[in-house]
Design goal:
Structural class: alpha+beta
Distance between the termini: 84 Å
Radius of gyration: 20 Å
Order of helices and strands: EHHEEH
Shape: globular
Length: 98
């Protein structure tokens, strides 16, 4: 005789700590290409390389997005999310060719 064993399942899904570029872009409401540009220019959220894969921590994405938080158009805020373009103050400067 086989007993019917009920396993208790909970609705607590394990949330990922790290997400790939496409998933991070969806989380932030950006295109993956924009996020890649931010990564190249040094203006985006902190990322990690695990093997050959680029991943973003959910907490890092949230912290970067918080830099752009404002309560009104006159609110100067305490940080700034820079555009993904060369020449941004936080972007690395290319060395001059000799």
């Amino acid at each position: 005789m086989v007993k019917d064993v009920k396993t208790s399942t909970t609705d607590t899904a394990i949330k990922p700590r790290y997400v790939t570029t496409p998933d991070a872009a969806i989380h932030l409401g950006l295109s993956p290409r924009t996020l890649e540009k931010h990564r190249c220019y040094g203006t985006g959220p902190t990322y990690r390389k695990l093997g050959g894969r680029v991943v973003y921590g959910i907490d890092d994405l949230e912290a970067w997005a918080e830099l752009g938080m404002r309560r009104s158009t006159s609110d100067p805020g305490w940080g700034e999310v820079r555009p993904a373009k060369q020449g941004s103050p936080h972007a690395p400067v290319k060395a001059a060719k000799s």
